[in-house]
Write a structure and sequence with these properties.
Shape: globular
Distance between the termini: 27 Å
CATH superfamily: Aldolase class I
Number of strands: 14
Order of helices and strands: EHEEEHEHEEEHEHEHEHEEEHH
Bound molecules: (5S)-5-amino-3-OXO-hexanoic acid, zinc ion
């Protein structure tokens, strides 16, 4: 089995300091959380950014400021800026971080429920996002919240409308209104992707660590972080993203998977060596 790539989704667009005071808003807080995750064993940071008051934003300048500040502290970390942003943002707004030519960025693979709201990703939007990533040489991480999202993105890839093999998928399971975070659902989704692809599992809320354990033994990779789950265990808030990553590292060690460094993760994902 390949070494385990851990992604830390340190911030997200929805969670707040009211829910967990360690949720980062400012540039300094975002750097602090990225560093804590990296030092605990994360090779990748999935990045959303906020205004200082916590409002989610896809502003290019704010992304640039955060990316530069993170890279100053941890130059080799792999950053995956979000093009999902927050529910209700326009496609143009969401695409702004791609103008910074990141190595990778998320590409969300279909419209779905998102709690009480609808997260819109129409086929024309996905074609636009794919075109931008092809033009800017960005490797997408394909975010699949539902089974149909996999087939949708594979069809677009077959037509050359989004980047193709080797593809990296992230199965985000347990979002209210979407596919439940069960091992059966994860295993079924993993079977749908082409040989040679890589994949990550993200369990939302209390599913975070059970799904991480499943991905570890199945040979996949793991995402954890405040975007997905604020608790270290039932009733115990995590003090940092690093604490969540450290728990995955402990699980992996117990289960016999070694942890990938950023350089090893780049090799596994087919990225160029650290710029
Ligand atoms: N904030 C969610 C509505 C992504 O980063 O690409 C979408 C999201 C997905 O977080
Ligand atoms: Zn995200």
């Amino acid at each position: 089995m390949e070494k385990l790539i851990i992604t830390a989704a340190i911030c997200g667009a929805e969670v707040t300091k009211e829910q967990n005071p360690a949720v980062p808003y400012t540039v300094e807080e975002i750097v602090r959380e990225a560093k804590s995750a990296y030092e605990a064993g994360a090779a990748i940071v999935h990045l959303h950014v906020r205004r200082d008051d916590g409002t989610p934003t896809q502003d290019k300048a704010r992304f640039q400021e955060c990316i530069e500040a993170i890279k100053k502290e941890i130059p080799d970390v792999i950053l995956i800026p979000s093009t999902g942003g927050a529910v209700g943002m326009s496609a143009e707004e969401r695409l702004q971080p791609t103008e910074l030519f990141p190595e990778m960025a998320t590409l969300d693979c279909g419209t779905c429920n998102f709690g009480d709201e609808v997260f819109e990703n129409t086929l024309p939007m996905m074609r636009d996002f794919g075109k931008r990533m092809l033009e800017n040489h960005i490797k997408p991480e394909y975010e699949c919240f539902e089974l149909g999202h996999i087939d949708t993105i594979l069809r677009l890839a077959k037509k050359g409308e989004v980047p193709g093999a080797p593809m990296q998928f992230n199965f985000v399971l347990g979002v209210p209104g979407c596919t439940p975070a069960t091992v059966e659902n994860l295993a079924f989704m993993v079977r749908q992707i082409p040989a040679g692809s890589t994949w990550t599992a993200t369990g939302i809320g209390r599913a975070a660590f059970p799904l991480a354990a499943a991905a570890i033994v199945m040979g996949g990779n793991v995402r954890v972080g405040f975007e997905d789950n604020l608790y270290l265990e039932k009733g115990v808030l995590a003090g940092s993203n690093g604490e969540l990553v450290a728990k995955v590292v402990r699980l992996a060690k117990e289960l016999g998977r070694e942890i990938a460094s950023p350089a090893e993760a780049r090799k596994i994902l087919g990225l160029l060596p650290s710029p």
